[in-house]
């Protein structure tokens, strides 16, 4: 099995492949669960682990009870997922379907329509949206039982393939709650992103943290769980402020280098990266603050310009060049 093909981060996949890192069957099962492959591809990969790889126990951890056999667990998981799919597609009296669309990075409600079958909901979705647009990442269709809180929710690719499925009240343990060792190529101060979206400056990973449980204890299952496999970073928020995010949505599994050109106020991240990587920070804090204030002022002037149609304020070319230096 080419387990590297299941990585959402091409940079982590390339790094693991380059150093020849070998994942055991349990780690492979976790990586498959966390990938953005279709559910059909995941079920096929788990079956391959059962058929082609040796069995092993699953260790006990904070949110996952120990199991004697990975193979037996995967058989149960595959059966559970298939039953969820069958229940999702099968029309029931007293149940309705509705949908939402992930468009331009936002999950948008698409009206109050309710449909008696999946097929009718999908048809209405196709009539409302051009699913071939690049800006549509996926759609969410929810099956809800009337007069109860029971529901099944499926995340679906624009071509109709299910990415994952979730049932409220489901009791099956989830592999994503298992912490595993994942070699990474990043260092503190790197400019990173998720799926080439907004950039941020990497500040902390569980590999480096000196506070809290040791990394070795997380890997062994003595402390923490898979929710701790996150990255902490600095970014420029919508209000132009420098903000530190603790983890989500910068999941370690999806982290990659930001290779696009930094524009607008995000250009400051280049200087913040240099500052974080610089050993002698005391001599540069005033420089760093002044650079941030220059970019912040530029962004505010540009915002006022747009508000007044471009005639109220404008930046002279020499001022722009001064900021870029």
List the helices and strands and how they pair.
Blueprint (H helix, E strand, L loop, with lengths): L9 H10 L5 H10 L4 H14 L17 H20 L5 E9 L2 E4 L8 H11 L7 E10 L5 E6 L5 E6 L23 E4 L5 E5 L10 H6 L9 E7 L5 E10 L3 E3 L10 H10 L7 H23 L9 H8 L1
Antiparallel strand pairs: 1-2, 1-3, 3-4, 4-5, 6-7, 6-10, 7-8, 8-9
Helix pairs in contact: 2-3, 3-4, 7-8
What would you note in describing this structure?
The longest helix has 23 residues, at about 285-305. It is built from nine helices and ten strands. It has about 325 residues and is of the alpha+beta class.
Major sheet, described briefly? 5 strands, antiparallel
Low-confidence stretches: 311-319
The total strand number stands at: 10
Beta-strand content: 15-25%
Class per helix and strand makeup: alpha+beta
Shape estimate: globular
Structure, briefly:
By secondary structure, the chain is of the alpha+beta class. Among the domains are: 86 residues, no CATH class; 79 residues, no CATH class; 40 residues, no CATH class.
Properties at a glance:
five-stranded antiparallel beta sheet, globular, 325 residues, alpha+beta, 9 helices
